[in-house]
Amino acid sequence: SYAANPLDPQWLLDTLGLTDSARTTYRRLSGGQQQRLALACAVVGRPELVFLDEPTAGMDAHARIVVWELIDALRRDGVTV
């Protein structure tokens, strides 16, 4: 990894509800799963700054809550969103 202190990828998969889809190719994921995977890829390296444009588009209500909770946790950890 190029990041000095990356987030645990398995934790991200679990948190974003992607564990069961971990071996599924990207194009076979649903739109919401693709969005959650994109978010995981964007934050796994613990960036200081992350730009998110409609991060919950295409997600169901539960997934939206999970994503916003993750974004809030990142903010508390010092990430500028």
Descriptive notes:
The protein has 81 residues and is mostly helical. The protein has one domain. Helices cover 44% and strands 0% of the residues. It has three helices and no strands. The mean pLDDT is 94.
Question: Quick summary of this structure?
Answer:
This protein is mainly alpha-helical and 81 residues long. It has helices at residues 9-15, 31-43, 61-76.
Question: SSE layout and pairings?
Answer:
Layout: H1 9-15, H2 31-43, H3 61-76
Global shape:
globular
Q: What is the N-to-C succession of helices and strands?
A: HHH
Distance between the termini: 22 Å
Estimate the mean pLDDT confidence. Answer: 94
Features:
mainly alpha, 0% strand
